[in-house]
Write a structure and sequence with these properties.
alpha+beta, 15% strand, elongated, 4-stranded mixed sheet, 4 strands
């Protein structure tokens, strides 16, 4: 019985040999049909695919908040500093804002989001997380970029808190004027 198995293994060609033969045959067929590549097609680099098993990591910023996100293929779960989305952001508006990039590209149930959030307040962190998720989706699938760009999710909101000036109570608020 073992002799039969060894004979069968010897008869089947190695996978490397079959791919080389198949590649040569397709090249010969293309030459025979007269298919020629233009200079533009040959010079254009192929897009680099992101491995499906590997997480995509990005950063998002808003006001004083900085968020680092890992986007992993999964079933739509969120882990934000070790908590769920509902625990970390009890406000429904913030939850909706965070899920917006996934809803725009219709992939809410396709990815798990693991995030580390630092600095700022809830609104700044929610905005930073939204941007980081959008960037991760673009890094994962380049065809999603136009939809996310049009929705304004890839643009950094550059508004920062203005510094306090000397002689004023806040950045622009002056003390009450007294005539006498």
């Amino acid at each position: 019985m073992t002799d039969e198995l060894q004979q069968e293994e010897n008869v089947t060609p190695a996978p490397e040999e079959t791919t080389e033969v198949a590649a040569e045959e397709t090249a010969e067929v293309a030459v025979e049909e007269g298919a020629e590549e233009t200079v533009e097609e040959a010079a254009a680099p192929a897009p680099i695919p992101v491995p499906t098993g590997r997480p995509v990591q990005t950063v998002g910023r808003r006001k004083e908040a900085v968020v680092r996100v890992r986007l992993v293929p999964g079933n739509g779960g969120f882990k934000l500093n070790g908590k769920t989305l509902e625990q970390y952001f009890p406000n429904k508006v913030h939850q909706q804002l965070i899920k917006e990039p996934l809803v725009t590209v219709e992939r809410v149930e396709n990815f798990d989001v693991f995030a580390t959030l630092r600095g700022g307040g809830p609104s700044g962190q929610a905005g930073a997380l939204r941007m980081a998720i959008a960037r991760a989706l673009v890094a994962y699938e380049a065809e999603d970029r136009p939809a996310l760009k049009k929705a304004g999710m890839l643009t950094r909101d550059a508004r920062e808190k203005e510094r306090k000036k000397y002689g004023l109570k806040k950045a622009r608020k002056a003390p009450q004027y007294s005539k006498r």
